[in-house]
Design brief:
The complex is a heterodimer of chains A (318) and B (368). Among the domains of chain A are: 38 residues, no CATH class; 165 residues, MetI-like fold, CATH 1.10.3720. Helix content of chain A is 67%, strand content 3%. Chain A is built from 15 helices and 4 strands. With 368 residues, chain B is of the alpha+beta class. In chain B, β9 and β10 form a beta hairpin. In chain B, α2 packs parallel to α4 and α3 crosses α4. The chains are: A mainly alpha (318), B alpha+beta (368). At the A-B interface, α9 and α10 of A face β6 of B. Bound molecules: adenosine-5'-triphosphate (ATP) and magnesium ion. The site of adenosine-5'-triphosphate has 12 residues of chain B, from α1. The site of magnesium ion has 4 residues of chain B, from α1.
């Protein structure tokens, strides 16, 4: 069809593009702010008016990964000269890197980051895995009270989770699940499972049942048909569900703050706890936040095509 | 060597009965076509044979052994589905190989079998493609390949070419016929297209609302329809059906339709063959358009009528003729009747007339 556009259509098109640009700017502004702060010298972080152009530096990241103490007196010039470049940056800031013998003491950030990864990955795998099986069951078999059961599953989402935080905390402490990876994983799986079941049910319903029936006639068991046919066909849905579950678990703050404090603490409650005393060091916090954003950004970017189909699932008919 | 027998099959979906006491014996190598309108239970019957649907009553026997309690995987039957053809995430090769992967066959043998089937179906150069890159016809060819590759006891095909356009359907029809002649396997084929049924079937099973209406060779169901449903379902253009009265008139039988002032002349023996059936009314005559003979000038036995609508269909025309209060459709040479309103003369060929009991719809089996 030849596209004959009227001038009002052209105008509308321009307005639409402008709106998209504005929206993108609004969404990107905080991200830009975090990213730029992460590379700023300390004193520029809070300058008024805000600095936009500056010489980027990595000192915030060095501070993020090391333990430091304030220096009482200026550093011995000989020691300064012998220090590696990144250590000099700390001396320049009036601090020195904490060492035991020759070993640089790392901050807790890598541990907390690792905790976040462990909890988010395992809880996502469990939530998506269980959700996929459950959704398959709901989608393919006659289940008494199916609609009610699905509704009950969703009902876990009907109150703000924080409401149960205090009782959960008490119960967790009683059974020794507080400050443990398993404790957080169980919580996040519980959050995400209902979502995962519902989303996956939509995807499962879209896979024609003839796909498996053909496999059944061809001599496969239902289990084999599930793994050989249903799972590959549901890959898009699984990817989309996984992204959403991962983001939820990765970003969860309230329960992580209440349920963990040391061993199993994840990055979200840890990063703000580094504000410290005296003048808050925004650049180090921004550096921690910036690194924390990366896994989700990468994960989402890799799966973005699936995601787009995922969020519009049901709307697209093949 | 596979015979399939269906004995007294009944199937309910909830309270709705979709198959009623279905009995059918299929011989080895026979090509059976289930023919019927949408929703008459064709797919359900096929799925029951495949083991994808349980039955509420009756037996399904394959080579004399009841299989209704066996899982689909254990029945050694292949099926081409109505709404599914290929797995999108596999190449054509993998799709065809898929049924073999369920067996203990070595990958060398799998490769050999797939290539053999591909050769027969002429899809060798498609083997590395994804289904999304195939045309509709090729897709169905591959789907048939999937079914053939395992050399199953029987083949079930549920409207395998129903979604293709007319020209491709014709091509594929010939292809399926060729394959059946070559490979020979007991086949149940479902379609709602009577031309497909006629051209492929050894025997046609005509179904309506879950009941078998007639089982017979294409010629039998065409020439000797068992009831009014079959009479009107099989054959195109559709058979004319009209309530008829038969009277004894000076040594001949006169068959009146549509309360017309005069009747069509039939041989006298019609009366004895009808055996009084005409007396109590309730008689319906069926005549295919080619049995309605039309000529321009008057002749003995011909009745003057007026043509109303003319449908040119290329090689012939279908002309609607007003006979009393009813319309008879006649098949004429193209352009024979020039236009609506033209007066022509019409006769019914007694040899092509069918007679049915109006109430039951059953054929009276009267032929002249
Ligand atoms: N799973 C089911 N649950 C309830 N009713 C069903 C189910 N499957 C089929 N039916 C009904 O059973 C009847 C027969 O269906 P079936 O699919 O066998 O028809 P068909 O002859 O194959 O029709 P078509 O030509 O449209 O494919 C229809 O009325 C249909 O609505
Ligand atoms: Mg069907």
């Amino acid at each position: 069809m030849a596209a004959v556009r009227t001038s009002s259509e052209v105008a509308f098109n321009r307005i639409a593009i402008a709106a998209v640009l504005v929206a993108t700017l609004i969404f990107l502004a905080p991200i830009y702010w975090i990213a730029s702060t992460a590379f700023k010298p300390k004193e520029l972080a809070v300058s008024v008016p805000p600095t936009v152009l500056f010489q980027p530096e990595v000192t915030p990241f060095i501070r993020l990964f090391t333990k430091r103490v304030q220096m009482q007196k200026p550093v011995d010039p000989q020691v300064y000269e012998a220090a590696p470049w990144w250590e000099k940056r700390i001396y320049d800031g009036g601090e020195r890197v904490l060492k035991v013998g020759k070993d640089v003491q790392l901050s807790q950030y890598p541990d907390r980051f690792m905790n976040s990864l462990i909890v988010a990955v395992i809880s996502t795998v469990l939530a998506v895995g269980m959700g996929t099986f459950t959704a398959y069951g709901f989608s393919r078999f006659k289940i008494a009270g199916e609609a009610d059961l699905l509704f009950f599953i969703l009902s876990t989402r009907m109150l703000p989770p924080v409401v149960v935080a205090i009782p959960m905390f008490l119960m967790y402490r009683m059974v020794g699940l507080n400050d443990s990876h398993i404790g957080l994983i169980i919580l996040y799986v519980a959050f995400n499972l209902s979502f995962s079941v519902w989303l996956m049910k939509g995807f499962m319903d879209e896979i024609p049942k003839e796909y498996e029936e053909a496999a059944l006639v061809d001599g496969y068991t239902r289990m084999q048909a599930f793994f050989k046919i249903v799972l590959p066909e549901a890959a898009t849905g699984i990817a989309a569900t996984a992204v959403f579950c991962f983001i939820t678990a990765w970003n969860e703050y309230a329960f992580a703050l209440i349920m963990t404090n040391r061993r199993a603490q994840t990055a979200p409650p840890f990063i703000p706890s580094q504000i410290g005393s005296g003048l808050p060091d925004w650049t180090t916090i921004a550096a921690g936040t910036f690194l924390f954003l990366l896994p989700v950004a990468i994960f989402t970017f890799l799966l973005r095509n699936h995601l787009l189909r995922g969020v519009t699932f049901g709307a697209i008919r093949k | 060597m596979t015979q399939i027998e269906l004995r007294g099959i009944e199937k309910f979906f909830g309270a709705v009965q979709v198959i009623h006491n279905l009995n059918l014996a299929i011989a080895d190598n026979e090509f059976i076509v289930l023919l019927g309108q949408s929703g008459c239970g064709k797919t359900t019957t096929l799925r029951a044979v495949a083991g994808l649907e349980t039955i509420d009553k009756g037996d399904i026997l394959i080579d004399g052994k009841p299989v209704q309690h066996l899982k689909a995987a254990d029945r050694d039957i292949a099926m081409v589905f109505q709404s599914f053809s290929l797995y999108p995430h596999m190449t054509v090769f993998e799709n065809v190989a898929f049924p073999l992967r369920a067996t203990r066959m070595s990958s060398g043998e799998v490769d050999k079998s797939v290539r053999e089937v591909a050769r027969v179906l002429r899809i060798t150069d498609l083997l590395d493609k994804r289904p999304s890159a195939l045309s509709g016809g090729d897709m169905q060819r591959v789907a048939i390949g999937r079914a053939l590759v395992r050399r199953p006891k029987a083949m079930l095909m549920d409207e395998p070419i129903g979604a293709l356009d007319a020209k491709l359907r014709e091509e594929m029809r010939a292809e399926i016929k060729r394959l059946h002649v070559k490979q020979g396997s007991t086949t149940i084929y479902v379609t709602h297209d009577q031309i497909e049924a006629m051209s492929l079937a050894d025997r046609i099973v005509i179904m309506h609302e879950g009941f078998i209406q007639q089982v017979g060779t294409p010629d039998e169901v065409y020439s000797h329809p068992a009831n009014l449903f079959v009479a009107q379902f099989v054959g195109s253009p559709v058979m004319n059906i009209a309530e008829a009265r038969v009277a004894d008139q000076a040594g001949a039988a006169s068959v009146t339709v549509g309360e017309a002032p005069a009747g069509f002349e039939f041989p006298h023996q019609l009366l004895s063959k009808l055996n009084g059936h005409a007396a109590n009314g309730g008689l319906t005559m069926g005549i295919r358009p080619e049995g309605v003979l039309v000529r321009h000038d008057a002749a003995p036995g011909y009745m003057p009528v007026e043509a109303s609508i003319i449908e040119p269909l290329g090689s012939f025309d279908i002309v609607d003729l007003k006979v009393g209060s009813t319309m008879l459709r006649a098949r004429t040479k193209a352009g024979y009747v020039s236009g609506p309103g033209e007066r022509v003369h019409v006769r019914i060929d007694p040899e092509q007339a069918h007679f049915f009991d109006t109430a039951s719809g059953k054929s009276l089996g009267v032929r002249l």
